Amino acid sequence: MRILITGGAGFIGANFVHWTLRHRPDVVVTVLDALTYATDGSSLAGLDVDLVQGDIADAALVDRLVGATDLVVHFAAETHNDNSLVDPLPFLQTNVVGTFVLLEAVRRHGVRLHHVSTDEVYGDLELDDPARFTEDTPYNPSSPYSATKAASDLLVRAWVRSFGVTATLSNCSNNYGPYQHVEKFIPRQITNVLDGIAPKLYGDGLNVRDWIHVDDHNSAVWAIIDHGRSGETYLIGADGEETNLTVVQAILRGLGKGEDAFEHVTDRPGHDRRYAIDSGKLRAELGWTPIFGDFASGLQATIDWYRDNEAWWRPQKAATEQKYAATQTVVA
């Protein structure tokens, strides 16, 4: 099988490449990635992949690559909420226009597509609400980032219904694990502690995220590719609801620090309070279960990876902290 992985040098995409080559030795992998600041070609170092640097909105390039593949797995996206508040245009270009370009290519060539999205398209839940997001939850995005991901999801659904494109979709909870850029919440706090810098929390730190280790997410994507029904959406989650406060405290404990060694910063505009995924359809219909049985074990493995791989994240760190020092923000 020949697979084109868009955004395959980014965090989740690169881990998907690693997972695929470990578990699917018969697969031939091509990666299309713009190699922006948030991606790193070194995440694919030593792997047998064809890495093509290019823009997902480049119709000629995308058409050529799609025409030479059997399956497209679409990770390519601008994903940083804070950046989308400063300048939404790149999010529209990549997440909406790029997905349109890709859909037209798979339509022309009759190639199967799996589209990777986020739970942020559903907006947020109240902290005391027992409900969780399901495949039937109405879309209610809160930021330019989540609005553009919602738009891309709807495009995929429309191309399935209107043009008969063969595609599946997944919306996942917050991923964490190796190769995640240090601008993101968990790796930023880990690397700050390693550098002797106090972690920072938005507001009261009680915002809840539903965390899933990236390897669990990617094993679920393969379950959908193998057994999912075209046109269907599957929510991917591992029952990992944690407040931002408890995550920071767990990181501090995992690195041998006191749980109160952090700082609060002013909350960001429109900050969603709680995300929570009900992955019952995925588990019941496709038989998927997560590898990491609890958040603590996955987080400790992630802490250990960043401690042991400073050479990978160190080049990103200074520029990231300089940017945040100018804006006094922290992503969560």
Name the CATH superfamily classification of the domain at 2-175 and 211-236.
NAD(P)-binding Rossmann-like Domain
State the helical fraction.
40-55%
What's the N-to-C terminus distance? 37 Å
Uncertain stretches: none
Figure out the total of helices: 11
Named at the architecture level, the CATH assignment of the domain at 2-175 and 211-236 is 3-Layer(aba) Sandwich
Q: Judging from the principal axes of the Cα atoms, what is the shape? A: globular
**What proportion strand?**
15-25%
List the helices and strands in order: EHEEHEHHEHEEHEEHEEHEHHH
What's the count of strands? 12
Rg of Cα set: 19 Å
Structural class: alpha/beta
Q: Report the CATH topology name of the domain at 2-175 and 211-236.
A: Rossmann fold
- Please outline the major beta sheet: 7 strands, parallel
Q: How would you classify the quaternary structure?
A: single chain
Average of per-residue pLDDT values = 93
* Spatial order of the strands forming the largest sheet: 3-2-1-4-5-6-10
